[in-house]
Amino acid sequence: MTTALKQPHHVVIVGAGFGGLEAAFGLAGAPVRITLIDRRNHHLFQPLLYQVATASLATSEIAWPIRYLLRDRPEVTTLFANVNGVDAEGKRVLLEDGDTISYDTLVLATGARHAYFGHDEWEPFAPGLKTLEDATTLRRRILVAFERAERETDPARRAALLTFVIIGAGPTGVEMAGTIADLAKDTLPPDFRNIDTHKTRVVLVEAGPRVLAGFPEDLSAYALRSLQELGVEVVLGQPVTECAIDGVVYGGNRLEARTIVWAAGVRASRAAEWLNAPADRAYRLKVEPDLTVPGHPDIFAVGDTVTIAGPDGNPVPGIAPAAKQQGRYVAALIKARLSGGTLPPFRYKHAGSLAQIGKRKAVIDFGRIKLRGNLAWWIWGIAHIYFLIGLRNRLSVALSWLWIHARDQRAARLITQGSSKVTG
Amino acid sequence: MTTALKQPHHVVIVGAGFGGLEAAFGLAGAPVRITLIDRRNHHLFQPLLYQVATASLATSEIAWPIRYLLRDRPEVTTLFANVNGVDAEGKRVLLEDGDTISYDTLVLATGARHAYFGHDEWEPFAPGLKTLEDATTLRRRILVAFERAERETDPARRAALLTFVIIGAGPTGVEMAGTIADLAKDTLPPDFRNIDTHKTRVVLVEAGPRVLAGFPEDLSAYALRSLQELGVEVVLGQPVTECAIDGVVYGGNRLEARTIVWAAGVRASRAAEWLNAPADRAYRLKVEPDLTVPGHPDIFAVGDTVTIAGPDGNPVPGIAPAAKQQGRYVAALIKARLSGGTLPPFRYKHAGSLAQIGKRKAVIDFGRIKLRGNLAWWIWGIAHIYFLIGLRNRLSVALSWLWIHARDQRAARLITQGSSKVTG
After folding, report:
1. Which domain of life does the protein's organism represent (chains A, B) (predicted)?
2. Nearest to B51 by CA among B114, B129, B127
3. Which has the closest alpha carbon to A380: A51, A155, A109?
4. Residue A411 has pLDDT above 90, yes or no
5. B313: Cβ–Cβ under 8 A, 6 or more apart, which residues?
């Protein structure tokens, strides 16, 4: 299918994450037609993905069919397809199935995935958390570890089954560690007979000197104390040097553990490779101040797949609000260009950083205002519910959280896939 | 692990479906210890499984961790394990991993799975609906068919992608057909640009002379008319003679279809084989009037894995209320025996038959009272919410149904697993 229509201007957006979707939203009313391509049929609210991995939320509570989000926009066509290249000279996007899609303007919002810094062989033992499947895989591993421990009679093997290692103490690592600790200490104890799930070890291993390195030092220190109060063992300044099926090595010591979670780093998508464009070590495209790819004024890139300096000189962080601001900027610039104008360079406004620590605390850095503890948790919760799309999911997530807080009951404790040996 | 404890009486229940769980509930307060074994970690509310397959409900809305349901019963141990045999002489259950569990009384509640009447080779093309994985697999197939049709330019291939064949017009087949029709006519149309999902063909093929053969003839006739009003093409008196990747054959004619759903029959688990006990053609154990296995007074069997005549001479139907009554009876009889008594034979009380037809109608057969239409749908809906376990899932399902009815929005339109080709 070669799209040969010349009129109206055709914007192709690759990726329906926060950046791509916001670009599509921002182009409402513009004299364009839009093709939005994603290899998934759903937009994912990644900030809460760790709650699916820890059985707190259902998959459908944090994901929406992309088509549904754009149903009222007849000029937008959603394609469920895999992009595997860009022909910048021919102004075409190449799909894996051989089709090509011509564009007038291209927006690459292709995101990032977890990266193992040259140790891809660790991935089977230490899965990361980027997709719904990643989350249900982790959920299965965590829940199966408790099930196996319940039936294990050898004390050493039982201890290894009840040891959970999280590698990387950024927001995802901190949130995973705190939530697994809650699960083990509050949700599971009454359900098991042979094991005491209070004895679960949750070990958070960080190569750098502190947890939540992107936050001010006093909030990092608070997060550290809060994690320790939850029973999480925090190991700082120790890079992991080996991951295997039965444990990890750091600081020269081996820790036997049957469940390892990778939260230590990401790499950008292959967009830089597609364009043979300059990128940083994490493969992030180095974009111009207007978010175009150098040498390609008709190709924009936004979100986790780019690197650009913020007003403070530091790189813009790889978080949802940054991707949304970039998507919105690109939409506005495309509109301006179509009416013969232009816009000043993209300028990132940092609204704040948030991280949940266990089920009743959070840290928030709004710049001048810093919050921590239970009040911060309330703001964290309300902000996340606010940013969910649609009343239905807001009600549903609020209901799930109410049950976690009031009854320590996590609704999505399902072991699915991989448990399907059938005896019948 | 050979369980050698003699005191107290040890009841082993295999299977935590409706029958097995009810037996465990019914034994509350009895002087026994109980081991409940299931190869899943969750109890599944199978009557609503078709709603997961059609994106109406989330998996976690109809499934509960088994351990959680029995958390307040310290005498109950839940094992997440596969049973693959029974040593009736040694009074031991054999687990796939080599362990054995000794019992004083055994309750087999091992259920049924879909059966292809000697055509197991059809299974990959016409999956059935018994587990959560079955439901998410069907959901993926149904949603992917619409996605592929949207991108397909060949009219014949597009028509095949938009043709859904359901084989078997019992309650599951009727409910699947009606709900796929609703999905295509009410939920999806505004979301697609290249296809008109109103043109979806839903074909329900039944070998027998009428739909819902277990219901009175007038309700069958009403269900047939209602399905036809929803646009479902109902084919009666035609057994399917071939299933393949690209279609089905019935009545000598080939129908091109890319999605086929098997709702035509079930076979019991291997419990009869384990015991080398008499069974019917569908492998259902022929049990004694007190639900024991002939020659094994210490082994009970309940639910879909047994066949027994009801008070009207017909076999007790394979539905949840029948399994629950049997589980309850077995619990009562075990209690009676422990205090030196016994009970009269099991007597099935048919409370009623219900089936939903599309999102606003149902048929109900309460024996003397027969209901159909919208009022029946309300009773159907209230009954199903009532039989869900726990306030949280009741609220959650009610919320999901409210959105379907008020907005035609189905919350769980997620394509997961198998779409995981990664471009990044």
Report:
1. Bacteria
2. B129
3. A51
4. no
5. none
User: Does residue A104 carry a pLDDT above 50?
Assistant: yes
> Residue A362: phi, psi to the nearest 5?
-155, 165
Span A177-198, average pLDDT: 96
User: Is residue B256 annotated as part of the catalytic site, yes or no?
Assistant: no
**Residues A286-329 pLDDT 10s:** 999 999 999 999 999 999 999 999 999 999 999 999 999 999 99
Distance of CA A346 to the CA centre of its chain: 23
The model's pTM is 0.93
Distance CA A105, CA A13 (A): 9
For the cut 60, the answer to whether the pLDDT of residue B18 exceeds it is yes
From B151, B190, B400, residue closest to A71, measured CB to CB: B190
**What residues of chain B lie within 8 A of the CB of A303, using their CB?**
none
State the pLDDT at residue B72: 96
pLDDT at A423 over 60: no
Q: Single out the catalytic residue among B61, B152, B175, B206.
A: B175
User: Chain B contact for A100, CB < 8 A?
Assistant: no
Q: Residue A225 pLDDT > 70, yes or no? A: yes
What DSSP string describes A118-129?
Answer: T-GGGTTTS---
Question: Domains plus CATH for chain A?
Answer: 9-39+81-114+266-338 (3.50.50.60), 120-264 (3.50.50.100)
- Is residue B424's pLDDT more than 50? no
CB proximity list for B378: less than 8 A, separation 6 or greater: none
**Span B215-242, pLDDT tens digits:** 999 999 999 999 999 999 999 999 999 9
Count Cβ atoms below 10 Å from residue A340 Cβ, excluding itself.
Answer: 6
**Residues in chain B, total:** 424
Q: Which two tokens stand for residue B44?
A: 């599944």
| B382: enclosing H helix or E strand | helix B374-387
Residue ranges of alpha helices (H) inside B315-356 are 320-338
Residues of B in contact with A110 (CB under 8 A): 423-424
Residues of A numbered 115-174 whose beta carbons fall under 8 angstroms of chain B's beta carbons: which are they? 131-133, 136, 143-144, 147, 150-151, 153
Tally Cβ neighbours within 10 Å of residue A160: 21
CA angle at residue B219 from B214 to B223, to 5 degrees? 95
Percent of chain A clearing pLDDT 70 (strictly above): 97
Proportion of chain B in helix, strand, coil states, percent, rounded to 5: 35, 25, 40
Using alpha carbons, list the distances in angstroms from residue A131 to A44, A119, A198, B124, B244: 8, 20, 30, 26, 32
* Amino acid of residue B301: A
Helix (H) / strand (E) containing B93: strand B92-95
Assess whether pLDDT exceeds 50 at residue B422.
no
Q: What is the mean pLDDT of the segment spanning A331-350? A: 97
Residue A270 CB neighbour total at 10 angstroms: 19
